[in-house]
From TrEMBL:
Protein name stated in the entry: ornithine decarboxylase
Primary gene name: LOC107070389
PANTHER family membership: ARGININE/DIAMINOPIMELATE/ORNITHINE DECARBOXYLASE, ORNITHINE DECARBOXYLASE 1-RELATED
PROSITE patterns linked: ODR_DC_2_1, ODR_DC_2_2
Subunit composition and interactions: Homodimer. Only the dimer is catalytically active, as the active sites are constructed of residues from both monomers.
Function: Catalyzes the first and rate-limiting step of polyamine biosynthesis that converts ornithine into putrescine, which is the precursor for the polyamines, spermidine and spermine. Polyamines are essential for cell proliferation and are implicated in cellular processes, ranging from DNA replication to apoptosis.
Cofactor(s) needed: pyridoxal 5'-phosphate
Length: 442
């Protein structure tokens, strides 16, 4: 039996199919036991359309660290997006699909020397700094680099604060860095900031852009010709969220402080583009009813469900990204709601996905779906305790196929047409099935 690799390509859905029908078809096939993702690249395309509509002046440079799946990078490259890379490996991954080095910003303010040398070797010359030692490193290893000073301006409310690690004080430290860069004869081309990932404080962008304006003026006074403003990340991407308030603030601040075509404005969105595009399906492999005390030994006080993905896998976002997840049972429940908790598959007691939630009674082999699982999940997942990282199945509708099939680096070879759910089912756990049933491979 020859195994087709069609399940690794983008499956073009017919009009009667969508992400949930694909998930149900795979989950109910009887062949699937491992967790899996379904990625809708149409969701990424729609996010890009929203971005260009809401902030037409700001060019997005996708934060690769958020989700570095190759197909994600390829789709974004096909849309003409730039890339924010934090290491030489991320740079190499983006360059490997034909992206020009000019579409990459090396946006890690504290870089190993070997990574700076590598950036110089491959022509990625735009990079951020926030301290004196970094300027001296760049002078030594890449003196012709285009330097962007990263300032600190923290959101009052953000999912992940970053200012505690990166960003110099815009009032005192940044002017000193500009003076040092002048002494070192480095080319400072702009200012960047990052208000915090998952920002819920839109006015912070106005404050940060104002700081940037003051530094642009100071840089001009000491002889620099700066032309790049990088407004960083922070844009929410879950279903039901909106960037409207942030966009309004950014657009007004740009009009007030940078009302000129001489300044190129970019941003570093990550979760905005990918969070809602990924849906994770997990199955219950074990169940433990917790009974009451000795006075009520038959009363169940809680159901503990053990699923096949956890905090060492996709749900690392609970630890590292301060994410909250909502379990959605694939089957409609009935009867009374029971206090429940959901646990990952490893032997670690910390491997808890959801606690203190009311759910209808579920059974072993039932499936639980988690939406908004595209940001800071797969890149950090590990096969701890021998549990595999979920496979990703990629789908699109025909309109997206027509839009992207000839947009390099994508080609028609990236897509497979036909009865997509059946095609997906072909290759799911085929190696395990071969071992189990002794199927010969041609």
């Amino acid at each position: 039996m020859k195994v087709s690799k069609s399940d690794e390509r983008i499956h073009v859905l017919d009009h009667d199919s969508n992400v949930m029908t694909v998930i149900k078809d795979i989950a109910m096939s009887g062949l699937q036991e491992e967790p899996f993702y379904v990625l809708d690249i149409g969701d990424i395309v729609r996010k890009h359309q929203i971005w260009k509509e809401k902030m037409p002046r700001v060019d997005p440079y996708y934060a690769v660290k958020c989700n570095d799946l190759l197909i994600v990078i390829e789709v974004l490259a096909a849309l003409g997006i730039g890339f924010d890379c934090a290491s030489k490996n991320e740079i190499n991954k983006v360059l490997s699909i034909g992206v020009d080095p000019s579409r990459i910003i090396f946006a890690n303010p504290a870089k190993p020397a070997s990574h700076i040398r590598h950036a110089a070797a491959v022509g990625v010359d735009t990079m951020t700094v926030d301290n004196e030692s970094e300027l001296h490193k760049i002078k030594r290893f890449f003196p012709t680099a285009k330097v962007v000073i990263r300032i600190r301006c923290d959101a009052d409310v953000a999912q992940c604060q970053l200012g505690m690690k990166f960003g110099c004080d815009p009032t005192h430290e940044a002017p000193n860095l500009l003076q040092l860069a002048r002494i070192l004869n480095l080319d400072v081309i702009g200012i960047s900031f990052h208000v915090g990932s998952g920002c819920q404080d839109p006015p912070v962008y106005h404050r940060a852009i104002h700081h940037a304006r003051l530094l642009f003026d100071l840089a001009s006074d000491i002889g620099f010709n700066m032309y790049l403003l990088d407004i960083g990340g922070g844009y929410p991407g879950d279903k039901g969220t909106s960037i409207d308030k942030i966009a309004d603030t950014v657009n007004k601040a740009l009009e007030e402080y940078f009302n000129t075509d001489a300044v190129h404005v970019i941003a570093e969105p990550g979760r905005f583009y990918v969070a809602s595009a990924f849906t994770l399906a997990t199955s219950i492999h074990s169940k433990r009813p917790v009974h009451g005390d000795k006075n009520f030994p038959n009363m169940i006080t809680e159901n503990m469900y053990y699923i096949n993905d956890g905090v060492y896998g996709s749900f690392n976002c609970l630890l590292y990204d301060h994410q909250r997840v909502t379990p959605l049972p694939l089957k409609n429940g009935c009867g009374k709601l029971i206090p429940s908790s959901i646990w990952g598959p490893t032997c670690d007691g910390l491997d808890k996905v959801v606690e203190n939630i009311l759910l209808h009674e579920m059974d072993i082999n039932d499936w639980i779906i988690f939406e908004n699982m595209g940001a800071y999940t797969l890149p950090v997942a590990s096969p701890f305790n021998g549990f595999p990282i979920p496979k990703v199945h990629v789908v699109s509708d025909k309109n997206i196929w027509h839009l992207l099939k000839d947009a390099l680096p994508l080609t028609e070879d990236h897509f497979v047409i036909g009865n997509t759910p059946a095609n997906l089912r072909l290759g799911l756990d085929i190696k395990e099935l071969i071992l189990m049933h002794g199927i010969a491979m041609a």
